[in-house]
């Protein structure tokens, strides 16, 4: 375990016992933790200190990773601080994680509870696995942090994890849709084929000649493809949605002025632009209620 451990910390405005229940009860834990689809505790005798469990994670429909885990006991200080140690792993080659260890810590204070975790793991496949872990480890850290914020919102506001994740993935489905639409519109009708209708509309809306418009439409297509790539940058998505709410009505009006016949064609500029305009508004509404990994500290001692 030579790599840097994954560390995630969040402040939750509720008492430590409730946070403990939501994270230690497997039926509650599996609801908010994105890393697990199901968690099942195995039978334990009263004198046994180690609680074993099995877990599964659905990678995609029909494919899942199953593994084992051990809760290695709980340490509680006089201050009320609790720590739960974990040991986990899987034999499935589909998982880049072979075996790992970590802990959860619960620190009560006047405003609520500091909930944090730190864990590390060994990868399989030798050097190849270590190279792959350079991409996988940040994803695991992000997934842990996102899950912690989902838990925080569930405990503090009572909003179920299922509702939060539906909203989260619906928002990013909209963003990927916009990325696809702008990429296709820039690549196919403008850059690759230079569709006559695209050139005709540009000549109608500008003083360019046909030859100049043919060259200009390539640059317009490249700009649209660059705009499509911007949708993959989370920091830009809010501004892009706001921009689209403003520009889609103007794009629709411009297209109608340049080519009135296009307004009555199947799947025309009116239906397309109105649909994308409404989706932009929906995206903005969803964005205001999204859980975020940014709500967590990712380094020990990091400022809030």
TrEMBL record:
The keyword Ribosomal protein does not apply. The chain crosses the membrane at residues 169-192, 212-233, 245-264, 270-290. Keywords: Membrane, Transmembrane, Transmembrane helix. This is DoxX-like family protein. It comes from Planococcus shenhongbingii.
